Amino acid sequence: MKLIERALELCITFLRVTIGVLVGLLTIPVGMQVISRYTGVLPVYLWTEELATFIFVWIVMLGSMLAVWDRTHFDVHVLPEAVSPRGRLLQQGFVHLAVTAFAVLFIWYGIGYTQFGSIQNSVMLRMNMALTYVTVPVAGVGWALFSLRHLACEIAIYRQHRRSAQ
């Protein structure tokens, strides 16, 4: 179990660093757009808008994976907060299973979406669109892994509470 936790920690560190690098890279095409539009110093480069969009998509999808890991993704509170350990397990279990179900849909349909993108190239950069579309199944894999890990933790907490109550 410690090996899995260590691998997840490395994955999260990789995600955080990658997002930071992508945000830094995003400033380049956006900065070029601002300079070219408002100063006229640079010619208008149309590819900068396309590149900024592609980088932003990656930031959003990788960031959504971190949101699931940090449990900062939204979940709608329809029922009052559970006070019993069993109620908490049921509530949190439902949330984690729902996120996992959506993750499986993103993986399943994202693979087809990526395959569709593999036969397309972007207009300005001539970049294969699969490089952007692959963010959908990649995010789905992250959501599923992190949600299932949280579910396993909830089950472990519940079991520990049951043992200590006996």
- Low-confidence segments, given as residue ranges, are none
The secondary-structure element order is HHHHH
Q: C-alpha Rg, in Å?
A: 21 Å
Number of strands: 0
The assigned structural class equals: mainly alpha
End-to-end Cα distance, whole Å, is: 25 Å
- What's the structural domain tally? 1
Counted by DSSP, the helix tally is: 5
Percent of residues in β-strands: under 5%
Tell me, rounded to a whole number, the average pLDDT: 93
Please give the largest β-sheet: none
State the helical fraction: over 70%
- Principal-axes geometry comes out as elongated
How would you describe what is shown here?
The complex comprises the extracytoplasmic solute receptor protein and the two transmembrane proteins. By secondary structure, the protein is mainly alpha-helical. The chain has one domain. Helix content is 78%, strand content 0%. Helix 1 runs antiparallel to helix 2 and helix 2 runs parallel beside helix 5. The longest helix has 37 residues. The mean pLDDT is 93.
